[in-house]
Specification:
about 350 residues; alpha+beta; 5-stranded antiparallel beta sheet; 16 strands; globular
Length: about 350
């Protein structure tokens, strides 16, 4: 089906519609900076064209108005061709001076990277926004798609579930020794890994936990502002510090009575991107692709084992994370390590998020 659609499109629109093939080889490592795609389409290092939002809109118009193709069929063609805009973020430390995540309560869960918001390729001029850890704000009621449409400089998708694909490219290794003997040179028993997170702007927020002298009633969601009649109040700020964290869970620390990120001891199989191969002394570049139409049953033990055998989370093959993405959502990556002696050596991390317009 893919080859047929590709052939049709290239034959009728060769100068306008460069087709993006499925990635079948590992991309080159990140280039040393954290970046986001511009609003115009561009050719990547491998000669693959990355369409912008405008490119997709123009091609749809050409199919509908120029070739008299019904809108529904034009939409299907774009979907089958996977002609989607995307946002990208990447950060590189390098093989010689990697970012190291060590075991220990204060350092074994490290925030690494966030993407621009889905649908906003031109978000953020300060590149530190993509690698800065934010205060753990619990999520409240999310904004509707219409709120983000008012802020976008380019047309924004109207779909409730617009995300189509997330591609993680991670170059890393563990300390090169350790683990049980029968797990050597496999992904089994690895205690260095990566998990995906999710951040979102919310129009209501959970107030700070009550101090000892204050009321001990359960926190409730409160509007950020009281004037709901003002249109500005119905739009997200798009400021980094106002992001709420959906994943990992934000909980109240009983000792400090403050909000903290909840990082379980064991990997969470529904958001575990990749773990490192045991006793591998050379860096490995893993490319992990999550798609909206993935349909691996998380209860299928055979399928889960296949994912585990390549270092992935056993419940990441059902497409749920991708399908649950909304316009404006931000994907994050966390580096993880557990138990003494284990070290997660990270050379580079890159995330690409594709969506349908």
């Amino acid at each position: 089906m893919w080859n047929t659609v590709s052939h049709i499109l290239t034959s009728i629109l060769p100068p306008v519609l460069p087709i993006r093939p499925r990635p079948d080889s590992a991309p080159t490592p990140a280039d040393g900076t954290t970046t986001q795609d511009p609003t115009t389409g561009k050719m990547d290092a491998e000669g693959v064209y990355k369409p912008s939002i405008t490119d997709v809109i123009v091609v749809k118009a050409m199919l509908v108005k120029g070739l008299q193709i019904p809108v529904e069929i034009a939409d299907n063609i774009i979907e089958l061709a996977e002609y989607w805009p995307h946002v990208t973020a990447e950060v590189t430390w390098g093989d010689e001076r990697p970012n190291q995540v060590w075991s220990g309560e204060s350092r074994e869960n490290q925030f690494l990277l966030r993407t621009p918001p889905l649908g906003f390729p031109d978000w953020g001029t300060d590149t530190t926004s993509y690698t800065k850890t934010i205060h753990p704000n619990p999520p409240g009621e999310g904004y509707p798609t219409s709120s983000f449409q008012k802020l976008a400089k380019s047309p924004v998708t109207l779909l409730a579930q617009p995300c189509r694909r997330i591609v993680f490219t991670i170059r890393s290794k563990d300390q090169g020794w350790g683990g049980e003997y029968h797990n050597q040179n496999t992904y089994n028993g690895s205690w260095t890994w990566f998990e995906a997170g999710l951040e979102r702007w919310c129009k209501s927020q959970i107030p700070d936990p009550p101090q000892p002298c204050e009321s001990h009633e359960d926190p409730v969601q409160k509007p950020v502002r009281d004037d709901d009649d003002n249109d500005d109040d119905k739009q997200p700020s798009m400021n980094l510090e106002d992001l709420a964290t959906v994943i990992p869970e934000v909980v109240v620390d009983p000792q400090s009575n403050e909000f903290n990120f909840n990082h379980p001891l064991l990997p969470r199989e529904n958001v575990k991107i990749q773990c490192n191969k045991l006793t591998e002394r050379e860096y490995i570049t893993h490319v992990v692709e999550w798609n909206h139409d993935d349909d691996v049953d998380p209860e299928d033990e055979v399928a889960a084992k296949k994912l585990h055998d390549v270092g992935r989370g056993g419940q990441t093959g059902n497409g749920e994370f991708v399908r649950n993405m909304r316009i404006g959502d931000v994907v994050t990556v966390w580096g993880k390590t557990r138990f003494g002696g284990w070290i997660n050596n990270i050379s580079s991390v890159k995330v690409e998020v594709y969506w349908s317009v």
